[in-house]
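Chain entry —
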Amino acid sequence: MRLLPALILGVPLLAQVTAPLQDRADRFLKLVNAGYQSLTYVNQQATWVASTDVSPEHDAGAEWAGKAFAAFNGNPALITEARELLQHRKELKDVTVRQLERVLLNAAEGPMTKPELVAARVTAETAQNSTMNGFTWKLDGKPISANAIDEILAKSTNLAERQKVWEVSKENGPALKDGLLKLRDLRNACAKELGYSDYFSLQVAKYGLTTDEMLAFNRKFMAELKPLYLQLHTWVKYEMAKKYGQPVPKAIPAHWINNRWSQNWTGFVNAVDFDPYFKGWQPERIVKTAEAFYTGLGFEPLPASFWAKSDLYPVKAGDPRKKNSHASCWHLDLDHDIRSLMSVEANAQWFETCHHELGHGYYFISYTNPNVPPLLRDGANPSFHEGVGELIALATRQIPYLKGAGVLPKDYKVDEMQVLLNDALEVAIPFMFWACGTMPEWEADFYAKNMPADQMNARWWKQVRDLQGVEPPSPRGEQFCDAPTKTHINDNPAYYYSYGWATVFKFQMHDHIARKILHQDPRATNYAGHKEVGDFLKQVLSKGATEDWRKVLKDATGEELSTRAMMDYFKPLMAWLEQQNKGRQIGW
């Protein structure tokens, strides 16, 4: 630790030059890991406060902590030493090389070779988050929450009301546009300092891929799934036209779909509405049931600090506090301070979301071990973290588990095709065309191709229509800016394809668990109480980012990343949809 002041001041680590290379790298990384972990905690604590209690004071605290964190990660001395050591990568251990590469990836987010650039980026991101988290939507002049918007879209059968509230949900876009354009320039400039062409290429480098390679993967997934998507799209638009007494459209009007971005198509299968079964549940019971799922697999209970420090439930009526409405799980100190930010209510969506978020928490716990240095306490690639959460969410949708957890009665009779249809619509197929289609295609255009500011909304809706077969209820000109109404466009940019990859990953992992470990039907599987499933998951999770993600996946399942398992899962549904859609116009 005595070298830390010298490092922060930018003094070269001359004492290490004459040491054997691996020893030199070990000393350097010991120092970097200590500083990285400490400043991660400072930064995360400040960001947590700013996210759970939005105020100018807390925003200022988050900005200060972000600048300190960026100053450490982007220190020119770190960049120089990591680059010099990587010139001799063949003489170093693989885990050493991976840490050094992570040092450079972290540095690219805020390279202190240009401190004024990094300071400007942190300031701009803090301002953007404050605008986003503090925005008040208004319906008929009265404030309305994100949860209330979603509830109306989930329940209303009045198309005029649906269109009105859908349009309200987009009101924050124009307020975020200028900040997003400013951030585009700052993020691209940071990436260029470390040799990346733009910010999108920096993010996909975390997969060991180029932008073109990432987009090719995404387009391959969509091409393989498109026949099923076209059948689902056709079935949905005919059902909705019947429900609303409207002509069958070519593309689906966005306000017909319950989700604000048409990313998940919920509520179309009335036979699989589980919300009534949560009547009488308290939100606390949902979170405790999710924890019990993991302890039943052999994981330890969540630390007491999780329950003391998390922010799990909606802000009470009358409380002026505002918080981020997006569910998340945090590993604040890269050790045992794990927390979740949610607004849990007693319904099926929050039941699933809780299981998902705790999946992140148990991933954190699993790789917090002496074999994984702080720099590599992360998923094998960014999609693995989302994939584990999604895998557990898939497991919790299985009817046998819902019965065992006390959600459904033991004598509940299931229409298997309706369950499969619901799974496809809500968590799988339309989502792929959003996560691997609209989001990355638009962001790659925005960051890598310098999309003109006066074409942002037109290009957004072109992607939505071309890839998702969805269109707005009325024209959306450039006075609107609908892309940044999705939180990730602002605060987790050039990342969303990770959720699409996670969807592919979860079906692959689930297929392996169901067939090879539990010897159960993948469409009717119950993980609960099976310690061997927990053992399998721990083998994957405990590695963190110490091994290449391709190796981790191949070792676990015996396969490369593939949509095979997903297509197999929905094969019976495809045959059913083809029968339902006979004689109908397919596509848009």
Summary: Residues 192 and 437 are 25 Å apart (CA to CA).
